């Protein structure tokens, strides 16, 4: 583990996943690029929905810039490896997690922030595995560089949830969302995608 996290996941991706998922590096990178784009879009949506919360607006605006710089870096590597960005397909993992949203804070703000933090936490875990076990040196370098930056986002969203909605409420709702995530993540079908499940039986 490369950094200190605000919380731990309820299920850990097996190391072999990072080897398997890089069997088609261009497919993985293209999917990853769309994940970065969606992370930026989600932050823009937060700003639109909660413009009267200056701490949130400033933090989300900063994350938009950083996610788009990640997007740029991933697309550059896709092209360096001879590929091009392909169409994004729906992120079943994120959609299933959103079904667990309960709106415990005003207009669902708490869940939006906590879910962003949980997804960043899972991404950090995947990036760390890829930094070590990806089949290609270029991918090991990319994910080694990006993992620490997503750790910052994970902690930022957690801090925002506590500051905007109350630390006790954030902590107790986080436990519920982590439980949901630990059931959703391992059941995803295997594919060359960032939020794919592992090959073979997982439970
Ligand atoms: Fe990112
Ligand atoms: Fe991020």
Protein traits:
globular; Ferritin; 203 residues; single chain; mainly alpha
Bound molecules: fe (ii) ion
**Cα-based radius of gyration, to the nearest Å:** 16 Å
Largest sheet: none
Structural class: mainly alpha
In the CATH hierarchy, what is the architecture at level 2? Up-down Bundle
CATH domain fold name: Ferritin
- Helical stretch tally: 7
Low-confidence stretches: none
Describe the protein's architecture and organization.
With 203 residues, the protein is mostly helical. The protein has a single domain, classed as Ferritin, core subunit, four-helix bundle (Ferritin). The chain has 7 helices and no strands. It has helices at residues 16-21, 25-49, 54-80, 92-98, 109-133, 137-165, 167-184. Helix 2 packs antiparallel against helix 3 and helix 5 (109-133) packs across helix 7 (167-184). The chain is globular, with a radius of gyration of 16 Å. The model has no long low-confidence stretch (mean pLDDT 93). The structure holds fe (ii) ion (FE2) (2 copies). One fe (ii) ion (FE2) is lined by residues 36, 39, 67, 70, 150. One fe (ii) ion is lined by residues 39, 67, 120, 150, 153.
